[in-house]
Amino acid sequence: MPIRILVLNQYYPPDVAATGTVVATICEALADAGAEVLAIVGQPSYLDEAHDAPDHEVFGRLTIRRIPMGRLRGRQRFVTRFLGYLRFLYGAWRATTRVQQPDVVVTFHNPPLLATLGSLLARRFNVPFVYIVQDIHPDILARTGWPGLPRWLIWVWRRVNRAAFAKAQLVITLTDVMRDHLTAAYGVPGTNIAVIPMWSQPDLGHIRPDVGAKTEARRRLRLPVQPDDLVIVHAGNMGVMHPVETLASAAALVRDLPVRFFLAGDGARRKRIEDLVRELDLRNLHLMPYQSTHNFELLVEAADICAVVLQVGLEDLCLPSRAMTFMSAGRPILAIMDKNAPISRELAQAAAGWSSATAEGVAEILRMLVGARHRLAEAGESARGLHADAYRLQPLVRRYTELIIGLASTASSQPHLPPTRTPPGS
Predict the structure, then answer these.
(1) Which of 122, 143, 174, 303 could form a disulfide with 129 if both were Cys (CB 3.0 to 4.6 A apart)?
(2) What is the spatial distance between Cα 360 and Cα 253, in angstroms, rounded to a whole number?
(3) Which domains can be identified in the chain, with CATH numbers?
(4) What pTM does this model have?
(5) Where are the alpha helices (DSSP H) in 230-269?
(6) Across residues 324-346, what is the average pLDDT?
């Protein structure tokens, strides 16, 4: 009998959320490895204009069931997001009453409290629970000073999280510092935590580094640039974790240089960027909406350097995964974050990019690069090498399948015993 795996996460393709793509990649890999996988996910709801996908799909050993989200779509209004979370959690709970007994329950971190549902289901089915946590909430909201949650609710949320972590036989996270935080803040034993880095999604290894390719991409996107312009691209979320306004402030400081900024995406901070563009008359900064997959790849190809942003103090709670995609394209990274963040340290060690948490520091880096263009090519080559060494999809996803299927196999071979804590291995 094949191992049966129940996976839950609100986002899943064709939804555009990055976490949904991660979930799909892992589910497909588990199915390819021989497991029967049931993924209970939500209808696309990340964007306001999202359209429904089929309620039920089967791809070989992978079955996808989507929970209706009605009109609860988009992320601009907190009430809409909150009600969408509740609707998915309730719908997922009801959907699991009609599923075949799984050998393991796996949840990710979207929406908040999904791990609580996963731990309850694991108890109901008497099987191991695996929690894949790539953003640690509510700790992120607490550190960013987000005003939407009172302290008592954050306290309750953390207590609920602690109970879910206590139930998990295996927790998988992205970095060593995130592992250390889970141990210190939630009491998760280090032996129960596996660290698996994020891979590039998508992998843009086919993108060429030469000037001709950049010029053609800029022409196809009709970017307002001159041949000698240094092009900086940020493409991703502009949420509470991402102080993208640092780039806008840096743009004001280098307005005298041949430097152009292109910021594509959306989120809670986008309105602030729009205001800064008007207030500072930033003619060298161009705001763009979320890009299609094709145009996103063209935008990366058009870039001389790609920026990733993370608020100082969040280094042990999350990771800007866009960095891996930019590395795969052979683009050097401008990391707007603390110099001791994991990505900043890796970039410095590999000579694959530069980091600064301040607009003044970013401006200094850009002034240096305008006068030393050869360093861009060198850093881009180093970035591609760093990706090849540490962030390729196949070996990293293989670690997921080995850990999850291994845990399920061990538990299913002892059907009359309660699940025991199983170390995730090295």
Answers:
(1) 122
(2) 7
(3) 4-199+393-412 (3.40.50.2000), 211-390 (3.40.50.2000)
(4) 0.90
(5) 245-253
(6) 97
